[in-house]
Structure formats: C-alpha cells, structure tokens
TrEMBL record:
This is Phosphoglycerate mutase. It comes from Actinoplanes friuliensis DSM 7358. CDD domains: HP_PGM_like. It holds the Pfam family His_Phos_1.
Length: 150
C-alpha cells in the first residue's frame, strides 16, 4: 500500500487523530518525508453506543434512518455534513494538490454518500480494509469525481 500511496505524490498527509488511521498513512508519510497532521473532524463516527457485541443491529438501524442519533452520539447525516465540510476545507487549503487522508470505514462511507455516491450498510460491510478511494475536485465547491476502492 505504501507504494500505491506514494505514487499519488501527495503534498500533504492528514489523518483522523485515532491511532489506527495514523498507522495506516504513517509509512507513506515517512517515505515522502511529510508529517502526518491530524484533524478532529476526521475522527470516526460517534455512534452513541456503549461497547456491545450486539452492535450490528444498531448500525443497520442508523443506515436505514441516517437522521437518527442515539443519545450523546451523532447521526450519519451529521457525520456526512462533518466529513464533507472537512474534505472541502482540505481542498481549499491545498488547491490543485494531492492530499492523502487517513480515515475510518464509516466516515469514508459518509464522505462518499455526502458527495452523492450511493452507499449503504451492505457497501460498508463489503469495503476492504484498508481501501484507497480517489476524489478529484475541479474546485473546493464542486462535486468530486470518485474512483475506488483499490
């Protein structure tokens, strides 16, 4: 994966502050001589669940009604708004440049959904980990061309 990420020639590397996301992009950042910068807005979905082995039925419910939020958590619609906003911010901050972003399955899925890609619970369950998606923007306020996963 390092070779594939370095071949994109990113000018910057950003990540969720969660360790597993940083660990995914750190090897490529090291080869490129770039720091991994973190943004709280790239964190994974706060599903509002206490730890449970029976989490999947809750996720199915959330994907069936993306506006639903558990007490103390965020809805998938809120996650889409947060994730699209942070991606647009990175596009504005790095105009015309490739930016490598390390994230998590649900936030990546909701970024794609927020940009109009049809994504549902079944898509999330089948998503390879790690997966590389490419979003190409003509400008910060445009809808991206999306390819992946690879």
């Amino acid at each position: 994966m390092v070779a594939a990420l370095c071949a994109l020639r990113p000018a910057a590397v950003w990540s969720s502050p969660y360790r597993r996301a940083i660990q995914t992009v750190q090897p490529a950042a090291d080869v490129l001589g770039l720091p991994v910068r973190t943004l709280g807005e790239l964190r994974e979905w706060d599903d509002g669940l206490a730890y449970t082995d029976d989490w999947e039925r809750h996720y199915v419910q959330s994907w069936a009604d993306p506006s639903y939020a558990r007490p103390g958590g965020e809805s998938l619609d809120q996650l889409s708004a947060r994730s699209v906003a942070v991606v647009r911010r990175l596009v504005r901050e790095h105009p015309g440049q490739v930016v490598l972003v390390g994230g998590h399955g649900t936030i990546i899925s909701r970024v794609l959904a927020g940009f109009g890609v049809p994504v549902g619970w079944e898509t999330v369950k089948r998503m390879p980990m790690p997966a590389i998606f490419r979003l190409r923007f003509a400008g910060p306020d445009t809808r991206p061309e999306v390819s992946g996963p690879s």
